[in-house]
Here is the input.
Amino acid sequence: MAFEHITSKERRVLCIGDLHCPFELKGYFEFCKETYAKYNCNEVIFIGDIIDNHYASFHDTDPDGLGGGEELDRAILCVKKWYKEWPVATVLIGNHDRIIMRKAFSSAIPKRWVKSYNEVLGVTWNWCERYVVDGVQYIHGEGGTARTKAKNDMMSTVQGHIHTQCYTEWLVGRKFKVFGMQVGCGIDASSYAAAYAKNFKKQAIGCGVIIGGHTAINCLMDLT
Here is the structure.
C-alpha cells in the first residue's frame, strides 16, 4: 500500500545503499523501484560506492578478475539503468568511487587532468561528500557507525559503507531527538569483488526511506 496520507509537500527520500557496480545484486534495482513507489518518494540519494573499481583497489585484486577497461564498461552499463530511472539524484562520494582520484593524487597528477564522475559514467547527478536536508546529514560513512556519528554531531545521520548493518537507532534527550540510520547495501556477496568479506557477517541488503527528516524507515530486501 502506498503512503497516500503523507502530504505531497513533504520530502520523502529514498536512500539507496552501496551498489559497487558492476557487482550489484540481481533484483536490487527492482526492489529500490518498488520501495520508491510504495512510500511515494520524491527524492533519491545514493549513499556512495556507486562503482567498485576493484581492478584499481589499494588492496589485493583478483588476478582472474575483469581488466580495468572491461570492469568500467560493465559499471557504466550497470549505472545506466539507475540513471534512466532517476536522472535527478544526489550521490555521496564513497571510498571506492574516489579510488582513481586518490591514485591520481598520489601520482602527482593535477586534478584537471582527471575526468569528473559524471563525464566517466555518462550521468548528470550531483556528487558531494556530505548532503544536508530537513536537518538530516547524509554521508558515505567511512568514519564509523551511524549511531556514533549521530551522537558525536547531535544530528540525525544516514550512511552506508558498512555492508553488514541496516538499522535506525534514536538518541533522545530532554530537548532533542536524533537518529542514526545504516541503510544496508546492494552488493552481490558472491562476487569476487566481495571475497574479502566472505568470512564476515552476511550483507544486509536494503535501502532507507526518510520522511520530512522526522521519520526513518529501513527496508530490507526479501532474499528467500
In short: The first strand starts at residue 12 and ends at 16. DSSP finds five helices and eleven strands in the chain.
